[in-house]
């Protein structure tokens, strides 16, 4: 523990960097995937194209993608942008499949009912389909968040500064505890992000949490309503 | 674009394939090494993960364990695991041995969750009625597992192995920073020499290897599908909205595991 205790500042500083690098890809992959998931549900060919390109992109190993990107997007080799773009690509690759599944999981009868009530396609998407797709979207973004945070540390190989530094430095100096501290810090960050995302989900989708409780309450409150036959 | 052409020229140059060159060449040997690590790792991981996945999938006991375990493993930084294990092994062995043994252990650990999830969700996806019918026909539990569940679950089991293989190929590339061989060596050498052409050539080679292996497994998944089930699924596809991906989505494609 002595190494960890005397280097808490460093660990904290690198954790902040780590969060900075992970946050944007997670948010971007969520935002970009929703239109893609929507498109995937319009048309079977589009769906095939989107799902296939997603799994192909995800097949590209991380390190090669980090080093290929500079020539594709014209950045410098040792630039954090490469890492952020690469992580966004992986995030979108996973998330757009989730988004497609989430939007197709919405009950068709509900969508028809919304149309019948006069929702325009646009309003129906925002106010009916997207909220109902929420739980599946949430599950998808949790996967993206956890794997993005785990992946950020590979970026240390291409000169990015994050918790991965502890792995490299610890190995070079022969301090096992430093490597271990890096792993634990990375796991804790992943856990923290997961908790935050779940909390955001609870705030945005209160009906989702109270489902079980309300169901049991409904049963216990099932007092027969008196029928006012005479009145 | 210049870099791309130069990298392609580097890959296609027969001189870089000639045997007897010093590391990181020849390219053929690096591909063979990369495949060798995969061929060593996957069977070890499968011996551990498949029986466990079959047990959990067949009995339904320990489902929470699989879900929690695969989720937690996703959070594990591969680079950290590699460094940690090579260092621990390094207390006992010399540098090259520890790079090999440590990396292989790390790769096995990283391959287990996908294979486990594939085996589990494959068995989970088998129609309950089919299993009941098999039981009613007097099959023992072992017969049900071997003759009914595993054949029907085979595409998803192969799918789990597929994502494990891709994970191993990706992580073995990173492991060359710790002294493991394989195609990652070409990237490492390029970085050390500050030669972007070489870095790019290595990156292309790994990517192509991953895509080819993925394609082979995609084919294998298709071939292992039980015939009657395959046609039924195609009928389902006519209606786009019914195509929700249950457990198949979880492991059918390599989109679940980190790198």
Protein described:
With 231 residues, chain A is an all-alpha fold. Chain A has helices at residues 2-6, 8-40, 44-59, 62-73, 80-104, 108-116, 121-152, 164-173, 176-204, 206-220. In chain A, α2 (8-40) packs antiparallel against α7 and α6 (108-116) crosses α7 (121-152). The longest helix of chain A is centred in the first third of the chain and has 33 residues, at 8-40. Chain A starts with a helix and ends in an 11-residue tail after the last helix. Mean pLDDT of chain A is 84; it is low at 213-231. Residues 231-258 of chain B have low confidence and may be disordered. In chain B, α3 (63-75) packs across α5 (95-124) and α8 packs antiparallel against α9 (196-223). The longest helix of chain B has 35 residues, at 141-175. Helix content of chain B is 76%, strand content 0%. Chain B has eleven helices and no strands. Chain B is mainly alpha-helical and 259 residues long.
Features:
heterodimer, A: 231 residues, mainly alpha, 10 helices, B: 259 residues, 0% strand, elongated
